[in-house]
Amino acid sequence: MSSSCYCGKSNSYEECCGVIHSGKKKAETAEELMRSRYSAFVIADIDYILKTYASKTRPVNQVKEILDWAKSVEWQRLEVVNINNGNSIDNIGHVEFKAYYKEDGIDQCLHENSFFEKEDEQWVYVSGEYPKEIKPKLPNRNDPCYCGSGKKFKKCCFGKIKGNN
Fold first, then answer.
1. DSSP state at residue 88
2. What confidence tens digit (pLDDT) does each residue in 93-140 have?
3. 93 - beta bridge partners?
């Protein structure tokens, strides 16, 4: 049993997202659903991922691609950036998050503002959009990278920034 859930909460997976995945508990907020979906990606639970899509946006023709991608990356951590509505009394909600992972040995970050709504009294994921990034003031080459990796900027995101020579 792990010390904390994949979603970043201090409870174990079994006490946190595991009870939601198993159906013993439902996600009571949009944030809880988002966190449980992140954990489902970590363990490649494609059935849960698909079940928690809104019926109108469920990507039934992309199941293999979603599963292959979830299995191909090394999930690192989840950071919830902002929550707008999505409480148990709401019918819609937005959760902005950053999911950090490694793909082909390269640190990546999926930054998304997700839209959730209730369908048959259950929270479901409708869609997501990628926030327009405000270009940060870049650190010096030897400063810690702004992405939070703990590496020096020159060894991390420096080469990923377009127009940076």
1. T
2. 999 999 999 998 999 999 999 999 999 999 999 999 987 765 556 667
3. 85, 116
What whole-number distance in Å separates Cα of residue 74 and Cα of residue 97?
17
- Are 17 and 40 in contact by the 8 Å Cβ rule? The answer is yes
The CA-CA-CA angle for residues 100, 24, 45, to 5°, reads 35
Q: Which amino acid is at 158?
A: F
Sign of the C-alpha dihedral computed for residues 4, 80, 49 and 29 taken in this order: positive
Helix (H) or strand (E) holding 108: strand 106-119
Question: Scanning the structure block, which residue is given the tokens 């369908």?
Answer: 119
Token pair belonging to 1: 């049993």
Residue 56 to residue 58: CA distance in whole angstroms: 6
Q: Are 158 and 143 in contact (CB under 8 A)?
A: no
Stated pTM of the model: 0.78
Residue-wise pLDDT tens digits, 23-65: 999 999 999 999 999 999 999 999 999 999 999 999 999 999 9
For the record, the structure tokens of 79 come out as 């950071």
CB burial readout 103-133, b (16+ within 10 A) else e = eeeebeeeebbbbbbbeeeebbbbebeeeee
Distance CA 126, CA 109 (A): 21
